[in-house]
Amino acid sequence: SQQGEEDPQALSIQEGENATMNCSYKTSINNLQWYRQNSGRGLVHLILIRSNEREKHSGRLRVTLDTSKKSSSLLITASRAADTASYFCALPNNAGNMLTFGGGTRLMVKP
Amino acid sequence: EPEVTQTPSHQVTQMGQEVILRCVPISNHLYFYWYRQILGQKVEFLVSFYNNEISEKSEIFDDQFSVERPDGSNFTLKIRSTKLEDSAMYFCASQGQGGGTEAFFGQGTRLTVV
Asked: In what helix (H) or strand (E) does residue B89 lie, and over which residues does it extend?
């Protein structure tokens, strides 16, 4: 099955700074998804980027996808303390009936 | 906004007991999933369910596990004889369409096997 790996594993920044997280994967994909998880809570879908897309925006979030390098990045601009969470990339299998999650990046935004 | 709801939020059970975790997916969704997350580890896929049958399952989803959609609204995960290593957060998810769309996750059930 497909698996993404995020880096860094942990990131600590000051409020107002930008945070960049990366996800690398090994085989071809139809799409790549980013999710957020607050401590001990459920996963919240952030953005889905399809293999024919290079960049997507949603509010303060920007996701890029480079299929030649098999990597994606999630940028959070002007971070806030409330952005503190774990962020995961997730890859569907070819049938689209399961997601494989990476280990996540734990982001801490200090006020 | 529609959401996936899971009950209970926390369940403690004795080893060897059966547990049923319950989920109410978003009402017009067609694809349903269970995932689990052992404390400090990755989110792991267990099973997907579509058109009243399992469409995919992982190695974790052995004979001790079963899923059911008994009444068209609930989606349940049963663990027949719990083991200590089944202790984890269990997340239900649903999708309106297949893999090209976002999955909506519930808040999870924390299962503790003692």
From this structure: strand B88-95
